[in-house]
Amino acid sequence: MNDHQEPVLVCKDLCISYYTRAGEIPAVVDFSLTVLPGETIGIVGESGCGKSTVAMAIMQYMGANGGIKSGSITFKDRDLNQMSEDELRHIRGSEIAMIYQEPFASLNPSLKISTQLMEVPLAHENISKEEARQRSVQMLADVKLPDPERLMDSYPHQLSGGQQQRVVIAMGLLSNPSLLLLDEPTTALDVTVEAGIVKLVADISKKFGTSQIYISHNLGLILETCDRVFVMYSGEVVEEGTIDSLFTWPRHPYTHGLFACIPLPTADKNAAPLKPIRGQLPLPFERPQGCYYHPRCDHFKPGLCDQEHFKMAHVEKSAADHRVRCLRHKEIDQRLEVADGEVKEVLELGKQVLEVDHMKKYYEVRDSSLRALISGKRIRYVKANEELNFSAREGETVAIVGESGCGKSTFAKVLMGLETGTDGAVRHLDNDISEIAVRDRSAKQIGSLQMVFQNPFDTLNPSHSIGGQISRVIKKFGVETDKQKIFDRVMKLLDTVKLPRDFYFRKPRQLSGGQKQRVGIARAFAGNPSMVIADEPVSALDVSVAAAVTELLMDIQRKHRTTLLFISHDLSVVRYLSDRIVVMYLGHILERGTTEQIFAPPYQPYTEALLSAVPIADPEVTKREIVLEGNLPSAMNPPKGCPFCTRCHRRIGDICDNEPPPDQVVADRHVIKCHIPLEELKKVAPVIHVPDEAERLHAQQSR
Amino acid sequence: MVTLMVKRFGFMIFTMIVVSVILFLLLETDLTGDPAIRVLGQFSNEEQREMWREQHGYNQPVMVRYVKWLGNFATGDLGESIRFKGPVADVMLPRLWNTAILGFWTFAIMIPLSLTLGVLSGMKEGSKLDRSISVFGILTTSVPEFASAVIFSSLFVFGLKWLPGTSSMSGGFEFKQLILPAMVLIVYDFGYVARMTRASMAEVMTSQYVRTAVLKGLPYKSVIVKHALRNALIAPFTVIMLQINWLLSGVIVVEFFFAYKGFGALILEASLNNDIALLEACAMVAVCVAVTTQTLADIGYTFLNPRIRFS
Amino acid sequence: MDTSTATTKMPTAGYGAAIWRGLKSFGLLRESWVGMVGAFLVLFWVLVAILAPLLAPFDPNSSIQPFAKPMMAAAKGGTFWLGTDHIGRDILSRIIWGSRTVLIYAPLATICAYTVGILMGLAAGYRGGWVDDVLSRIADIILSFPVLVLYIIIIATIGASGLNIIIAITFASSPGIMRIVRGLVLDLRNRDYVAAAQTRGESDWKVMLVEILPNARGPLIVDACLRLGYVIITIGVLGFLGLGLPPPDPDWGGMVNETRQMAMAFPHMTLFPCIAISSLILGFNLLADGLREISLRD
After folding, report:
1. Vertex C145, ends C142 and C148: CA angle to 5°?
2. Cα distance from A537 to chain B (closest Cα, Å)?
3. Rounded-to-integer distance, Cα B226 and Cα A331, Å
4. Burial of A319 (0-12, 13-18, 19+ CB in 10 A)
5. Per-residue b or e along A72-97, where b marks 16 or more CB atoms closer than 10 Å to that residue's CB
6. C202, A498: Cβ pair inside 8 Å?
7. Are residues C282 and B153, on separate chains, in Cβ contact within 8 Å?
8. Of A219, A232, A209, A250, which is closest to residue A40 (Cα–Cα)?
9. Span C217-239, average pLDDT
10. C141 and B19 in contact by Cβ < 8 A?
């Protein structure tokens, strides 16, 4: 990467708008970017900041009503905006390629993989079909897909999500493009699969010399893959710089605010809680005067920050290309604010409220194929939950961690009574609820065990008003019966979740994602529950919104001493707010213990891999790299032995395939399910190393 | 895949049996009125009715009658037509053939026309072509067949005097007489199939995999033909198969209006004349054709959709 | 964030509010001119049907002056604006009164069909299992009949009368409606708010009617308009084939059939009823299209 090379892509003062019936919507206001050959650039921002619009503008695919209002995009000295459709067609796929967010939707379901791969070089270069096929097979091997020949003849739906995304990447690289655009390529994938793709992306530049633009909302991913990063807010770049300079010393209040919202390893829910960014993202046609961020900025100075729109400025005493759009960046010293957050009191844990005792949940599946008819095995079982054992105390936050297919949703369903357990018991407040379906439970029982759901857009009924929905819940649980009292209680709940009282009359579609999730929380707490199950409550929300909702949940929990079962796949959030963690894989609990015990050795090998896959946005933190190979087995046909044996990087032999591993007790309530003897596991080095203050100071001084 | 086909055919046969039971109960038993009265009229007296019942074996137990009736059906003995005074099979077959000819020409013109226009309007959603086809489609589906038959007759028969007013083919087969009935059917159904195709094509054109194909730099023709049409035509295919079911309804009005000696007119005549045997036979045949095409449509859809085929 | 209780009062519930909200949503139609034209056509005929006694110049069933051409003056005063038929009945009056027939039976039949179809579709889609299997099989069997053949058989067996036509239409249309509702329910029942209601222990029917059905109303309203169009066509066709309402009630389809033999010399007798029925059906189709456009834009 020397400076004498010609840049591959230059965006200069780019201004992109959408022209709709309602008028002009300026999506991107001032965007400038330079990409050198072999560089990986990251564009980070929350939803609505315009990062995907920029990607589409580079591809010149903004739809019928989008257009570049001013500025230019130059690719290798040619203005993309001035090119004809034909010229664009030559460039797309062969010089600039794109990878999308949802791999399955991006592949044609009716065509074989081979067709979709081969047509790229065939359309752009003058080669024979044979050669195209050979190159495709080679590329599939290069993106680390096993058995490329067989994959060529498959259809997209026969591949897993991670495999599909690798195919899309292979498709993009086939004609050796100079620039690769990646728009949130791993958002739809599981964490361990994501780690593999991220590693692949990081290697692409080295292997093929391709420049990349990586768009994401996750700062941790950007840290792992990019050389330089651009932070976008409300349609413009607010800070840009190398990974080193920006991550060590972010200068713009928004960037700093973003870091304060992410549950880094240094955050602690009591001692150093997350600091959500107040306010809301302005709508595109309601941008404030001057700095767009000033209504939400803690360093706002009236008369200075709200006057005119201004440009980026270079940051002194930092790397050459570290620039920031802030008039006060020289005066603000972010480091002085590190210990500024409020300290919350630690919650004392109470007695045991939940005990899960060898719970099993099998789903019956009737196999009606001819083969089953003949062999006599008509009924097969999906072993969704297998022998679950753990407990939770009053006021405790227990996290259930696992990827898709691990059985955490099934477990939630059994707890809530939507399903009944096949075997074993689940005792809540000394009542075995695993056998009792929800319709047989008393109103009090139901009210004391409620759930917050994942998808904020589906969590509320779009046809009824907010107030109406919460009132119904209160009535149902029998908390109040008098109309006026119910109304008052709804108002109090709205206050608790920090929503304005006149939201009572609004319909869900008038609320944002974060606001809807707050209503979901209000609804769950309407009946004064003793235990709440939160199923990925913040996964679908933007970082700053998620921080606010997470803090809200913590506050309510503290006040009511509720036990919280937090289901998630995001280990950063889990580490931040849970006291205990249960790690699930294919229906089994592979490890359980307190947060400190889980994050430190000894590890169950799956836990180890999971920990190494978590993206952490702290450049001082080091991680050991573990990439899992192999596929998740089907829950109908689980391995005879350890469920993790097909992918385990520490597999010791046939015993892992054939015999179910034993529960090894490491300490009180810390159990690991593995064949590897405990002494060996204890010798393993920690996966994540978080440097303490002394080490950090040392690292910074040597910079 | 094979299991699916076996299941579908099994269900087809099940449907036919259930239909036959329903028809039997409705037409041959006392469920909806005495068959004897239906045939002999209201003014017959009890003696005549008894005699008729004896003659036609109506006094035997229901199950026996049903089995015998079904057996007759299966072996091709469809009974005697009262209206036409002859075996039902002899009456029905030539009529079926005539309707088949009408149907063939209707589809031969309607399908290419509606598919092409549907695809073209779906490709350019919102364009002038799209709007005009949509408007035309809504207009034509709003005019019932008998009304369009009237309008076309007024125009082409009475006004311009280009085409004959009836299609009885009394002087042997004349293609000219087929034009008006076919035109009515084509115009009515074209709107529906074109709009279905348009919707399917428009949905595919906005899908993410078409976006991928465009952004891979493939030539436009390749994007449309190889990527879009492949998926867009799956739904219209099944819709077209199901139009055969619709056709069996549509021809009734058209054949009645133009006095075309087809199967549809036959069903109508059978019901208006209380010709039970004929009505039963026609109904069974109609349902048989409908169910067969439905089953073929189902199997075809499964075949065309690789997700289901290879799962 | 305003949290004062002074500004928030308890909401008024009740059917009055619901109807008012329903009427307000007609204003939405302003966004789609296609829907406006459709609504205008439908309203036009509804008004004609309501005001029939005031609008019709003559008695629709009495024969006055056969074979009069349109705009011809009647012997005893008044004008035959649309002419008379072969029996001497004024066509305009017959068309006006005929609109009543159509606009009473079609909505009635549609409402019956919808009630049955919605109940079946909710049960099949939500409960699943054997309920779904049985109901879907029944629907498949009924739908495998070519529609008109089904009508012919039903009418042939139970006879032609107003009530029987409603029964026949309900029987033939509810499987199609059931399929649509079932499809919508299958999609909606996976939403989190349904799961939230279930975890509260709400009964099945409460969930179906309160949580799921209101969110299906968009596609169902569009379908209802279209189906009204189909039902009107059906009533027209049955009338045309002689299987419709027994005379002498004027019935547009029947009018066409009675007069088509004379269409060569007197086209007005058949053309005007055709135009009448086509315009009404067009109105419903345009209205459906407009509503669909609006719901997509939401």
Report:
1. 115
2. 28
3. 60
4. middle
5. ebbbbeeebeeeeeeebbebbbbbbb
6. no
7. no
8. A209
9. 90
10. yes
User: Could you tell me how many CB contacts below 8 A there are between chain A and chain B?
Assistant: 86
User: What single-letter amino acid sits at B248?
Assistant: L
Between residues A490 and B88, the one the model is more confident about: A490
Q: Is the pLDDT of residue A487 over 70?
A: yes
Return the CA Rg of chain C.
Answer: 23
Give the Cβ contact number of residue B281 at 10 Å. 24
Distance CA C294, CA C288 (A): 10
The H-or-E segment that residue A610 falls in is helix A605-613
Q: Which residues in chain C are contacts of A498 at CB distance < 8 A?
A: 1
Residues 6+ apart with CB under 8 A from A657: A639, A640, A641, A642, A645
For residue C138, CA distances in Å to A606, A690, B7 come to 50, 65, 16
- Cβ contacts of C50 within 8 Å, gap of 6 or more: none
Min CA distance, C8 vs chain B (Å)?
44
ipTM above 0.85, yes or no: no
pTM equals 0.84
Q: Best of C193, C205, C217 to disrupt the A interface by mutation (most A CBs within 10 Å)? A: C193
Listed residue (A276, A199, A174, A147) closest to A552, CA to CA? A276
Asked if C144's CB is within 8 angstroms of B15's CB, the reply is yes
Task: Check CB contact of A363 with chain B, cutoff 8 Å.
Answer: no
CA distance A606 to A581: 14
**Of the partner residues B2, B209, B215, the one whose CB lies closest to the CB of residue A105:** B209
Distances in Å between the Cα of A357 and the Cα atoms of A23, A384, A410 are 60, 16, 16
Put simply, the answer to whether A108 touches B216 (Cβ < 8 Å) is no
Counting DSSP H helices and E strands in chain B, the numbers are: 15, 2
Q: Which of B132, B142, B184 to mutate to test the interface with C (most CBs of C within 10 A)?
A: B142
Q: Do A93 and B215 touch (CB under 8 A)?
A: yes
B223/B210 Cα distance (integer angstroms): 7
- Reported as a single tens digit per residue, the pLDDT across A303-357 is 888 888 788 777 777 767 888 888 887 777 666 555 455 677 787 888 888 888 8
Euclidean distance between the first and the last CA atom of chain B, given in angstroms as a whole number = 9
Q: How many CA atoms lie within 13 A of A159 on its CB side?
A: 28
CA A8 to chain B, closest CA, distance in angstroms equals 19
**Cα–Cα nearest to A218, from A250, A187, A247:** A187
Chain centre distance of CA A532? 22
Cα B23 to Cα B281: distance, rounded to the nearest angstrom: 10
Q: Are C259 and C269 in contact (CB under 8 A)?
A: yes
Phi, psi of B259 (to 5 degrees): 55, 40
Element (H, E) at B158: none
Question: How far apart, in Å, are the Cα atoms of A318 and each of A242, A324, A432, A697?
Answer: 10, 11, 62, 17
pLDDT tens sequence across C122-181: 999 998 888 998 999 889 888 888 888 888 888 877 777 888 889 999 999 999 999 999
What residue ranges in A602-643 does DSSP mark as E strands? 622-623
d(CA C294, CA A271): 52
CA distances (Å), A405 to each of A116, A383, A629, in order?
29, 10, 17
Is the separation of the CB atoms in A582 and A568 below 8 Å?
no
CA atoms within 13 A on the CB side of B11: 21
Tokens of C164: 């029987």
Does the distance separating the beta carbons of C2 and A459 come in below 8 Å? Answer: no
pLDDT of residue B124: 84
Q: pLDDT tens-digit profile of B192-214?
A: 899 889 989 988 988 899 999 99
Burial of C80 (0-12, 13-18, 19+ CB in 10 A): buried
